[in-house]
Design a protein that fits this description.
By secondary structure, the chain is mostly beta strands. Helix content is 13%, strand content 45%. The protein has one domain. The two termini are 27 Å apart.
């Protein structure tokens, strides 16, 4: 899965490894990333957004976490009245027939940092 985050100022779109909150001096959400430039080695850090309070910054991190939760698309063919299977997908039981096609659709995710 690839997570891309657009910065609060809209000037950067970064493929991130992980994000964290720096709340000692200010409430900043910072991303760790590896640049795709030839000849550049090591990890880099970029501030993606700054918020008025630690609580608001934690809400933004919660939003990012929520988009990382797996999302699935289920396509079923045939007579839907003959439901035969129960599938457990992340704790949720889903009924489908023998011809169900289940696909995880979380391959690339983009999150845009809120202004406030």
């Amino acid at each position: 899965m690839n997570l891309w985050i657009r910065s609060q100022d809209k000037m950067k779109l970064i493929k991130v490894n992980f994000v964290f909150l720096n709340y000692k001096n200010s409430c900043q959400i910072i991303a760790n990333y590896i640049p795709d430039f030839i000849g550049r080695e090591g990890d880099y850090f970029e501030t993606l957004g700054t918020y008025k309070s630690k609580e608001r910054a934690l809400e933004v991190l919660d939003e990012i976490q929520n988009i990382l939760n797996p999302k699935y698309m289920i396509r079923m063919s045939g007579n839907l009245s003959n439901v035969k299977k129960y599938l457990n997908i992340d704790g949720a039981y889903i009924q489908c027939n023998d011809n169900a096609d289940i696909k995880n659709i979380n391959n690339n995710l983009i999150y845009e940092m809120p202004e406030e």
